[in-house]
Design brief:
globular; 14 helices; about 290 residues
């Protein structure tokens, strides 16, 4: 018995080893994810089918309204794929950030009555967001194939890196704001503001070189180091750059910044990891007071 107990070092009440401790609680994490999905689609006849229907309708609306009526497709080849590739990543970011920020408040009864790593709640919200983004990616792939999408393994790898970068960045911010939200409900309003401007601080409706045409190079590099902007651009490289219209045009958005793009990509990934680390440290520092505040 003594040997078994020694495998689990004593910690201060209300604290865990953070994200590193979640492997031991994987079963409970799966239960929390299933609970969130069940609550989300309670009373719905179609259930998860809506996760495919909504992005499919959104893609068609973008194609007609912005690609045809507004004529944006004339200046940017395969514009609907370009736009939707960015929107999918923004939706992923916004859902993670919004739900993780509110995750501790939503699970206040569990936080106040039983001990478990508090990080389980934000991470479960991350997994729910991932479950929802997969159907959007499927619709995006189908739409890209209609525009002659022919990716290489490099394109696929960059697409995975896009999801990882935005996932780490948004989870780090989510842990930070989830902790603050326990003490100050204003955190939710601040997150709503971030979600509102997220689409404009990343190249979704416009191409990043439009920023380069207005601002000096150092400021453009700072803009591209933003993990959200870089995540969107990596998504463009994965889904939009290999489409037939872009290939026939003979250039992609990366051609304008190819020499420094690998360094910016690595810098953005490091920043996303740093935000995740800071979010975890702040969350870990404050989690011991969650129960009494709730």
């Amino acid at each position: 018995m003594t040997k078994e107990l020694s495998e689990y070092p004593l910690r201060a009440p209300g604290h865990s080893a953070g994200l590193l401790d979640l492997g031991r609680w994987s079963f409970l994490l799966r239960l929390l994810v299933k609970k969130e999905l069940r609550v989300r689609y309670r009373g719905s006849a179609l259930g998860m089918v809506w996760s495919y229907v909504k992005p499919a309708v959104q893609l068609v609306v973008y194609y007609i309204a912005m690609g045809k009526f507004m004529g944006l497709g004339r200046s940017i080849p395969s514009y609907v794929v370009y736009l939707f590739a960015g929107m999918v990543m923004i939706n992923f970011f916004n859902e993670i950030l919004s739900n993780t920020t509110r995750s501790i408040i939503w699970n206040a009864p569990l936080v106040g009555k039983i001990y478990l790593p508090r990080e389980l709640f934000p991470v479960s919200s991350l997994w729910v967001a991932f479950v929802h983004v997969v159907p959007q990616i499927v619709v995006l792939i189908v739409g890209a194939l209609l525009f002659g999408w022919r990716p290489t393994p490099v394109h696929i790898l960059v697409g995975v890196l896009s999801v990882l970068t935005i996932g780490m960045f948004s989870l780090g911010l989510g842990l930070l704001f989830a902790a603050f939200n326990v003490f100050f409900r204003d955190a939710e309003n601040f997150v709503d503001l971030l979600s509102m401007v997220a689409i404009w601080v990343s190249p979704v409706f416009y191409q990043w070189h439009m920023v380069a045409d207005v601002f000096p190079r150092w400021l453009v590099n700072l803009y591209m180091l933003n993990p959200l902007a870089m995540g969107v651009e990596l998504s463009h490289f994965c889904f939009w750059a290999p489409t037939q219209g872009v290939v026939e045009a003979g250039r992609t958005s990366w051609d304008l910044m190819a020499p420094s793009m690998p360094a910016l990509m690595m810098g953005s990934f490091v920043i996303a990891f740093g935000v995740l680390l800071i979010g975890q440290l702040v969350f870990h520092r404050l989690e011991g007071k969650f129960a009494q505040e709730l």
